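Are you able to produce any protein sequence you like plus the matching backbone structure tokens because I've never seen that pairing?
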Amino acid sequence: MQLSKTYKLGNIDKKISKKQSTNKDNVLVGRPDNYPIPDVEELLFFIQRNYNSDSIVYKVNRNRDGLININDPIRVYWIKYSENGTIKELNYLQKKLAYGYTSNQISSDLFEFQLVSYPKRFFLAKKKNDNFHVVTNINGKQSSLDSVYIHADEDGVFPDVRFIEIYGKSFEDHESVFEKITL
């Protein structure tokens, strides 16, 4: 696994095509500028892929009393922009092999969780205003996670992931942070 430098997001020069984006040096870069950002209440983060602009959304899952569901603190589903923004649940394989998660409650305000397809640990933490955010280390900086972009070749039965880009905001200086993991 090879990690890149931290960049301010505005410094990435992108040319957009459906399957692949490259910067001015012809190096693969991530999420195209024309991909939508989900407008979802209590959005924690989202994942997008190079295949299309459909998004996997991770949002706070609250019970009927408005409290976080301690057994299932995150609701995960698709926004299918390719189907006029239709919302769809993940299927069984997507939950178990790709976009699902496991979690452990540490306290009433803190959960540890891990995506089933990625070994890094994340934390779901309550902010002062009773909202939650995802806390992780992005390229050496303690940050709030905003989104993940996955670039994969999807020609076979299972996608061959080429790289992952992680976007967030640093707690230290409130600047946008970026980490590219090449697989």
In short: Residues 1-23 have pLDDT under 50 and may be disordered. DSSP finds one helix and 14 strands in the chain.
